Amino acid sequence: MATLAIRGGRILRSDMTVTEADVLVDRETGDIVELGAELAGDDELDADGDLVMPGLVNAHTHVAMTLLRGHADDKSLDAWLREDIWPVEAALEPEDIEAGAALGVLEMIRSGTTTFADMYFEIDRTADVVERAGTRAMLGHGAISAGKDDAAARADIEESVAMARQLDGAADGRISTAVMPHSLTTVTPELLELAAAEAHDAGVPVHYHANETLDEVEPIVEERGQRPVEWARDLGLCTESDFFAHGVHLDDREIDLLARTGTGVVHCPASNMKLASGMAPVQRLLDSGVPVGLGTDGAASNNDLDLFDELRDAAMLGKLAAGDASAVAAPDAVSMATAGGADVLGLNAGRIEAGARADLAVIDLDAPHLTPEHDLVSHLAYAARGSDVRHTVCDGEVLMRDREVLTLDEAAVMERAAARADGLLERAGV
Ligand SMILES: [Zn+2]
Predict the structure, then answer these.
(1) Which residue intervals of 134-261 are DSSP H helices?
(2) Residue 276 C-alpha to ligand 1 middle, in angstroms?
């Protein structure tokens, strides 16, 4: 067994306590083997004075949208999609997806995110990036019916199913997949039902957007006399493996339905604030036992992929939504960004314990904004930043050591992404 020992630090346990311990990892299986004192490995990472936490899980993003970071801001979701995003996305080439995904993955490794769930196009290109970069990802082709004829809309769902079957288990098992119809309002009912049936037949989840804005909720209520989540359940989109992004506008019956079915929700607070979509009832979801993870959504509506920002936003916005300063407390926010997200994606990760996936972020606490050390969980929720991450480990392999990313050429990734972004906007004529 080839091993890696992370030595000299304190570890964040899943009950949100912090204790001194080394972490021994089996690099072949990619699992955590042992926690304890004075553990030695074939390779070692120094964590003296640091906090070792589970790698963060970004449970909903569109990673290649890093190319559109700062392209169009300060608009509502519908106008932003129709006027600024969809016209540019129509001009995307596979090389753009690869360049944008590499940029996003680089940003995530630097900020301690080891897993992301991604809905986008040309996902075999994103899979290539994940393979090279060494992270973990759940990938899905985002299929949409809006603006397409029946045949093209059906072909798009079929592509989502085919890609999910093809890529599941790729990159030595680091890649899992889902069938990803875009949303309850942009895909026809018939195709939503088909997506669910095909996904479950293939043994993969369905992932989609739901209840993000009132503009999405009201038409469904008026047309069907049902809340969107009730309708989604009737279409087969609410099984234990399935999960959707946003869930901003949910009533008590829907929350109860999510809890009973085990359907996961990915809370995207920065995107919800930036697009003025609303405040998700996160504390009520947690109280009801709904699995909740955190996502950045795409970089065009955030505008970064730093999960520490998201964690802090989730804690802050959760209090505002509940009108209660004790809501979405620091441990809950940290938990959603780690074990919560891993549970939503069905992964044995997000926890530092023997037998779990060795996906870890090592936080350098030697900084003014992290001093003094009254409560390290509080620091993670309210004071830490992605740039405090010193080492990133995924599947037992070191992806970043002492802030140097080992699996990607940083300068080349940034240069290529900037060039592809310029070319993309030129082609799109904007
Ligand atoms: Zn999204």
Answers:
(1) 150-167, 189-202, 214-224, 228-234, 252-261
(2) 14
Report how far ligand 1's centroid is from the alpha carbon of 46 (Å). Answer: 37
Name 82's Cβ contacts closer than 8 Å, sequence gap at least 6: none
Cβ neighbours of residue 418 under 8 Å, at least 6 residues apart?
A: none
pTM to 2 decimals? Answer: 0.98
In this predicted model, what pLDDT tens digit does every residue of 327-366 receive, in sequence order?
A: 999 999 999 999 999 999 999 999 999 999 999 999 999 9
Ligand 1 centroid distance, CA of 182 (Å):
8
Domains (ranges, CATH) in the chain?
A: 3-54+352-405 (2.30.40.10), 56-345 (3.20.20.140)
396 Cα to the center of ligand 1, angstroms = 29
Distance 132 CA to ligand 1 centre (A): 24
| Residue list, annotated binding site | 60, 62, 89, 182, 209, 212, 297
- Asked if residues 68 and 88 have their Cβ atoms less than 8 Å apart, the reply is yes
The two beta strands, 264-267 and 292-294, are: parallel
Length of the chain: 430
Distance 56 CA to ligand 1 centre (A): 18
Neighbours of ion ligand 1 (CB under 5 A): 297
pLDDT for 77: 83
CA distances from 418 to 73, 110, 247, 262 (A): 18, 18, 33, 41
Is residue 398 within 8 Å of residue 43, measured between CB atoms? yes
